[in-house]
Design goal:
The protein has 279 residues and is an alpha+beta fold. 20% of the residues lie in helices and 38% in strands. Strands 1, 2, 3, 4, 5, 6, 7, 8, 10, 11, 15 and 18 form a 12-stranded mixed β-sheet that branches. The protein has a 6-stranded antiparallel β-sheet with strand order 14-13-12-9-16-17, with no helix packed on it. The longest helix has 16 residues.
Length: 279
């Protein structure tokens, strides 16, 4: 997926980390800045998600994931501003916030498309899913702290892959490859690629390694045993699973649009976050 021009917004929404006083104050300053530029600002998160044609996110990667969920598939560019250290998703540091806004308002900004995943949970023989959700980073099937090892039967587009005895399995998007999947020794995948990753968590058989699948693949995971296991979506929403539950994950039909920081590329973010090249 290549970059594309970011449309000049007529109405901007602001989503900020509510627990950060600094993010709240910055939101008020951005509202004033946009007002002086003659740009309307949507009031509140719900109105922003419904009517804005640009979202400014002030916080960290978790705040941006929250904002993407609010949009519910609307193709609205997101300008992610990190209020702390550089983020994988929130590429713009606070010091460059207004310069980035000027680029957007001048029609000079670019956006990149990111794959989302659609996650369905089927309980027993039910034909309708108990959960139908979309995630930007990952869907994690993981056992509780004191639970016995989970036994998970994995199929990809109907083909049996393996039965994993493990602490769990992560199904991640390319964007999510640098989140929990990376901590579980998954590969780093360039974030604008199309596809999904299947990463086992502490598998009993060490030869069971992460797999990168094409985005037309549907991954289905069946909980075989009675282990205490939870399905967690983007690290923010959890659901206890039962023996026989099936979790199906594939590419979602819509994309998340992220405004690019022209002053840093993906490899610059990797060097900053993972400290590559330090001596």
């Amino acid at each position: 997926m290549s970059s594309q021009p970011c449309p000049i917004p007529k109405r901007v929404g602001i989503v900020h980390k509510v627990s950060s006083p600094g993010a709240g104050e910055t939101a008020r300053l951005v509202t004033s800045f946009l007002g002086h530029k003659g740009v309307a600002v949507a009031e509140g998160e719900e109105e922003a998600a419904r009517s804005a044609d640009l979202l400014v996110v002030l916080g960290g990667d978790g705040t941006l994931i929250h904002a993407a969920r609010l949009l519910a598939g609307r193709p609205v560019p997101i300008l992610g501003v990190n209020m702390g250290s550089l983020g994988f998703l929130t590429e713009v540091p606070q010091s460059e916030l207004y310069a980035a806004l000027e680029q957007v308002l001048a029609g000079k900004a670019l956006v990149s498309e990111r794959v989302k995943l659609r996650v369905n949970l089927f309980r027993g023989a039910a034909a309708d899913p108990a959960i139908d959700a979309q995630v930007l980073n990952d869907a994690v099937i993981g056992k509780g702290a004191l639970a016995k090892m989970a036994e998970l039967d994995v199929r990809c587009s109907g083909d049996w892959v393996a039965t994993y005895k493990a602490d769990g399995i992560i199904v991640a998007s390319p964007t999510g490859s640098t989140a929990y999947s990376l901590a579980a020794n998954g590969p780093i995948v360039f974030p604008t690629m199309q596809g999904l990753l299947v990463t086992p968590i502490c598998p009993h058989t060490l030869t069971q390694r992460p797999i990168v699948m094409p985005d037309e693949t549907e991954v289905e995971i069946l909980l075989v045993n009675d282990s205490e296991v939870y399905l967690t979506l983007d690290g923010q929403k959890g659901q206890r699973l039962e023996r026989g539950d099936r979790v199906r994950v594939g590419a979602a039909p819509d994309r998340v649009l992220l405004v690019r920081n022209p002053r840093i590329d993906f490899f610059g973010i990797l060097r900053a976050k993972l400290r590559w090249g330090e001596r």
